[in-house]
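_Full entry_
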Amino acid sequence: MISTNFDKAALLELADRKHPLSISLFIPTHSRGKEVLEGQDQRLFKNHLQAIRQELARQPLRSNDVDGLMQPLDALLANGQFWRHRTAGLAIFRSPDYYETFDSPLPLDDFYRLGDTFFVRPLLPYIQSAQSYYLLQMGKKGVTLYQADPYSITEVDTGGVMPTDMNEVTQYYEFQEELQGRTKGRGGMTAMYTTDDRDSKEKDHLLADYFRLVDDAIRALIGTQNVPLLLASVAYYQPIYRQVNTYPHLHDGGLTGNFDQVDLRDLHAMANEQLAGYFEQPQQERINQYQQNSGGDLVSRDLRLILEAAVTGRVEVLFIQQDSQAWGQFNEATLTATLHDEARPGDTSLVDQAALLTLRNGGEVYTLDEVDLLTDREPVSVTALLRF
């Protein structure tokens, strides 16, 4: 599994797998730096494998069965090439009849769990529709258009629609970052020009002509999509581009600087930070909807009622605290629930069960650090907005 292919169907398929020896392992990882050079991620993974073996040793298992279960994990530990090409997080799921890894573009908490089912809650954020956007990087080498979301970024194949570089308009001029340079006459002779108003206006005019070609290409490539376009360029370019822009969703902010030599991962991270408010819009809209209905019957903080509603498709949105647990048993056929203060043999996580039932029946699930949606109420571990 990779982040771009992980969706609700993949998560539900993973959650449906049941085996008493189901290992779910999560670690933060690194793509570069001393953590990679010093093998920090590998050591962390090795420590988890040792702890898992110790836990398995306390169970009535043959050593051959333990070795067979751990074999792909041991092989992964020994794969030095694998650990040199990581993202921000790694999730691994292993049972006697299943093995899969998931490269997370965002850091994951460091822990493992051995149980009857795989623990999928850390991956819930990836199954909501990701807010997409476009990033237009403009520099001396021309322009590059990227399509991105919070988790991935790819260069758009412009197919000759985008002007290759500024020479298509400014072929007789050589501009530097500052307002000094040389003009090239048609005969090949060069002369220095200074920063007087005439030269600055001429440069602005030529840049504007070039950016009009870029804007035409943007409209042809993006069309009428209702997604932001974020600029990344030196400060001098941005007001000129904005003057000629006709794409209606050009983002008010922009990334300012020379990004020609910036690693794409860093550029992506900066763009995500700039658009943080945009990414939070769907969740915030759901929170607003929840708060508007807080005085009626469409909001519930009762886990038993939420479980019943989730089975019958009545949960529109479920909010759960990231680390919350409620143990017990819920019979989906009879709609009866038994809750326990602590986990007992045969118990399941009722919070996770509510989340999976909500997803299976078309609802949305959001995990929050703290479910504190109403100012006059105490935070809770789970709450829901119902459809009816």
Q: What stands out?
A: The first strand starts at residue 18 and ends at 28. DSSP finds 13 helices and 19 strands in the chain. Residues 175-195 have pLDDT under 50 and may be disordered. The CA atoms of residues 135 and 230 lie 5 Å apart.
